Amino acid sequence: MRKNLSLNLLYRILNEGEEGSLVEVINFFSEEGPINSKLINNLYQPFRFHNESKLLFKTLEELGQFALEVCQETSSAEVFILSNVDYNIGLDTCNDARSFRELFRRYGNVIENPDQSRKKSNIFNKFFN
Amino acid sequence: MQLTTPEAKGYDTVFPGENWFFFWRTSPSLWESKLSEFQGPSPIFVPIFWGLHNESPDVLDFGNYRPETDLKRLYDCAQKVGKELVFLLPLSPAPFLPNGGLPSYLARNLLVDERGLAVTVLDNDGRLNKLYSFYDPRVFQAFRGFCNSIARYLSENAIACEVFGANASSVESGRVKSYFNDHSTTFNRGFDRYLAQLAHDGELDKERVASDPSEVERLKKSYSNQIQSLYEQAAKESLSANWAGELNFAFLGGASSDIFERTSEHWEHPSSYLGSLLGMTTLDFIPSSVLLSPGIKNEPLLKALGAIVSEPFIRSHMQNELYDEEYSSKFNPIVFFELYRNSNPEAFLKDGLVQFLERQYAWTFRFKRELKVNFDEEFGDKVRFFKGEGLDSSEFQSVIKLFMNGSKIFLDLSGMNEDLVRRLDTFVLENSLKEEKINYVSPVSKITLGEGVIITYSSEKLNSVPLVKKLKFWETLVSYFNIRHLDIETDEDGVFYFWHSRPSNAYELSYEEIRRVSLYNTTSYKKKAKISGAKNFAFLKTVDQQKVEVRSTPIGIEVQLLPGGSVSLDFGFYE
To answer: What is the DSSP letter of B28?
Structure first.
């Protein structure tokens, strides 16, 4: 996987009755394809509280933390997190592949990878650093 | 309004794949020349695009306002150039049409999959088709009206063209998903009304519904089937003069999860389309590649599509009676086994049969939705598997008839109605049939009558043993039928193959039939395949060899396939 890519994470809220609601990851991918499942499973272990093969989280904060860890591990620039509800709303504005690719960027919540954003340089850094 | 020059395409978008013709994508003045130039299989499938003819509620246009809606002109063009057209009326959301085929004034409630995502499909032109729910009562009312209008139009214009109802599905991880399946609030509202009606009629066990989630799923399935049959009935009744039945299509690249990879510019497109294609054939669907742009259709996939979705294959799905006579000299897919999944499609997975067939007889079995038997045909050549669970009296009668006509049958007695079990016992006793019984993993009984054989077993016992034991069980039992086939060993990923056969011709009299195996390497690596030699088979020739090396060894044939390589090998089979 190349570095500095943007990741996309799609989730939905599951209502589990008395146990409250859970957050399930529907899809986690970059523009190059699905993220390595072995890496995902390793990073998911600290959050695991069940025996199912799904990626479930108790809160959205935990989901965000997990997404950031994947982002850091893959040296990606950022991760866009989008719920299925917002995905369905956002689809209304998409007519082709190009507008679909923008969906996560336009409607998702972004978490930036601090390691990568620190590395971002521009022409002035060359003079002042 | 488009202000820039339209992008020139290196392919003809009006023929997006196989024998499909998207007539609305070109000017009617070009229909005749396009149809005359078409070289693909016959008949040509022409979808009836509801939204094209019915842009607003009060306007139905069949060439009155816009020439591209003139189906009579299209029909005349085809007649003139001697091409056979078949109209396809979608009976479910159609992934290759904008709004799934619905008129825009009815495209209100998005179709939602089991993960809560709106079902969206990328077509071969790079456009997103959002699909909408067919459970909206307004959609059904309008559909019925449209069916009446189109029937009137066909009759008034003397268009003697067959109309098939088209059911659209996709295949995801080996499972079929109909585009009629819906998890939207529109579906749920309708389902609530259905439950209320059942409760009103005293047919709803409220306690069971509250405590058993599987009961809710069963009721949802039943509701969905009822609504689907309403659409089918409406189309069939209105279009009875032209109605020729229903066709089941599965669309490559049409799964709801495919959208993520197909819209990406850098995502490597998988070789699995070939696997999906073969899977769709096994599941008894007509595969369609109309959603895939030419860039994705690599050489192996195109070749496989050409070989599988051939004219005999299409006609066999249309159940055209001419099929047998006209096409028997051509290559047809080999089918050794038919699996009738009347009640539970997963059942053959649980007892290990599918896993066994995939390993030993890859792609030579078919799942059948219902038992349609023409008793004039030959029965001896296929082995048929039936599940007793859900088998009704008339189906049981057909199984017995098949047996008496010399068919080879496996019958799973688990869950079979006790009356039917008794009827089978009585049938054996009254006719003094030869019956042998053994206990091997499950109680197994073999009943014979001339060529006909019924082997009964109990999957209840079989389901609980490890897979290795299940595979051994099937190997032992299936070996009884002495099916002659060649073993193929391939590198695990990315090499696909399938078998065709045809009767031998006047120059091949030493053989009973010619079997052809076509091999494809869909990866970017070099791959190998070995075909072991066997009694009753003689290697004849290689056909259409591309980027492939074929070597004959003392133990068989070795094939080295370079990336994108493909080849067909012909073997003569003799008894």
So the answer is: G
